[in-house]
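#struct-help
A.M.: can someone run this one for me? Single chain, 119 residues.
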Amino acid sequence: MKLLPRMVLLSCVTFSTSPIVNADTPVIPELTQVPTPPVAGSTADDWDLVSKVKSAFANTKTLQTQNITVNSVHGVIELTGTVDYADQVIAAEFIASKVPGVKAVHNNLHPRGSSTQPE
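D.P.: on it. Structure tokens below:
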């Protein structure tokens, strides 16, 4: 007979989904919305493209530490910022253009230094 009350208590704890709060504690609902896309006029697909382009840059040794901002509107990627060398401007545009779903790349990157990286 001692097991029955424990089983009831355990089942109440196990199946209870409501938080325990007192009357003074407000209950704040969890946010379940997708974050707003990065640019006005963008779609969820644009948000996904921005993530994929940033990931491609993060996986490219020469672009990992560069100051590149990536935006997308209707599949058109815009790159802005500065990179160390002019060949990184070209590499960033090439890599972004190869991401599936990218329709075009507007490259507004500017090099800080010489045209090529030192060996």
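A.M.: thanks! The longest strand covers residues 76-83.
D.P.: also worth noting: Residues 47 and 99 are 13 Å apart (CA to CA).
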